Predict the structure.
Amino acid sequence: MNSTDTIAMRPLLFPDDQQFWYETLRALRYTAYGGADFAEVVTTAARINAGDDGSWHEQWPATDPQSHPQWRRTRPD
């Protein structure tokens, strides 16, 4: 490997949508602190259509509406 090679993690979900993959990684980082469950994040993300903001804002609160009341307040109409 030379100095021009880069190593990047391949997205496990949303391979063609960097923003959704980044946001999924953000959700996954909370697993280390007990704020999220790995399986919950992955199964929720798998139900989301890449690039579809509406899908994103529907699926996260659908996972557990009681745990995410802020989604209802912040969801764009």
User: Anything to note?
Assistant: DSSP finds four helices and no strands in the chain. Residues 37-77 form one domain. Residues 18-29 form the longest helix (12 residues). The mean pLDDT is 81.
